[in-house]
Amino acid sequence: MKKISKIAVLSSGGDAPGMNAAIRSVVRAAIFHGLEVEGIEHGYEGMIKAEFVKLKSKNVRNIIQRGGTILRTARSEEFKTEEGRQKAYDNLVKRKIDAVIVIGGDGTFRGAGIFSQEFDIPFVGIPGTIDNDMFGTDFTIGFDTALNTVVEAIDRIKDTASSHDRMFFIEVMGRDAGFIALQAGIATGAEAILIPEIEGQAEKLKEYLLNESKSKKSSSIILVAEGNNLGGAVEVANKVKDDFKDFNVRVNVLGHMQRGGTPTAFDRFLASRLGVAAVDALLDNQRSVMVGYKNHEVVHVPFNKTIKGNRDISNELLRVADILTI
Ligand code: F6P
Asked: Could you tell me which residue, 305 or 307, shows the higher pLDDT?
């Protein structure tokens, strides 16, 4: 196997708080091991367009606390094509890059998996997405921060909900997964939580609303994961308004405010550990693996498992939500 002397690092897909802490960790761990490091701007898009920047220890100073990603990010359509990946490979060879560390979600790892089957450049992945939907890791970088942001926003909305006797439908991100909604719902004491992983939520919601209209409860929070089967918060709320004219309904779509902001201590800590682990993995000749975090330990999971495996929502958490929602 070719000796690794120079690596590249990139962030790809949606930005997530803690990505900068991961970049910092990769750069400093690489330098610690005597490697050269380059950053690739705009993820795979920048690999194709040769947007390389040399990174020294000082370039990652004072970024551990910053949200977003200093390398910027993108979702690349061209990288999904053979021609795009060929251009990307040629650029890596030109820059004498021996290995790449990618920070992102399942789309990022899918790209990395295909690329490393086609070409002889090893890739290692670090899970970075607010959705927490990666198989093989208990946490992805950014989830904890997004969860705390959502909880803070809901707490504020609850003040208005109770002051005005209103029912709020609050939509949170998560793409096809309900991790943010479920955990934020438990943490804020939401009255109902709609997530994509559960069937038959329409009946349950109706039952809840019927009880509500009988009991004349004054305020409530219904948390709606964007990917749930009944539609977004606006859609669900409109239906409820039609069926229950007495409710004083309002809608809040939290949107991209969930993605930015200062990473929590947990996300900085996780990102710092996984960055070091990713460089270690490359130097240990590990290829096409994600470094993840399971039961408080760093683990290595092959890309094909992280992509194909479905991350199940915990039954225990569902039970807690079931018992505590009304
Ligand atoms: O994957 C992160 C995420 O924020 C999802 O929760 C959301 O569905 C999606 O990205 C939004 O993507 P964009 O910022 O491209 O609109």
From this structure: 305
State the distance from the centre of ligand 1 to the C-alpha of 14, rounded, in angstroms: 6
Ligand 1 atom having least distance to the Cα of 105: 1
pLDDT 10s digits, 39-57: 999 999 999 999 999 999 9
Q: How much distance in Å is there from the Cα of 175 to the middle of ligand 1? A: 6
- 183 and 108 in a single domain? The answer is no
Ligand 1 centroid to residue 286 C-alpha, Å: 30
Domain that holds residue 21: 6-142+263-308
Co-location of 42 and 137 in the same domain: yes
In this prediction the pTM is 0.97
Residues 101 and 74 in one domain: yes
Mean pLDDT throughout 183-202? 95
What positions carry a catalytic annotation? Answer: 131
In a domain, 153, yes or no: yes
**Which residue has the CA at smallest separation from atom 12 of ligand 1?**
14
Contacting residues for 310 by C-beta, under 8 A, at least 6 apart: 135
Residue to substitute in 131, 134, 176, 256 for testing ligand 1 pocket (most ligand atoms within 8 angstroms of CB): 131
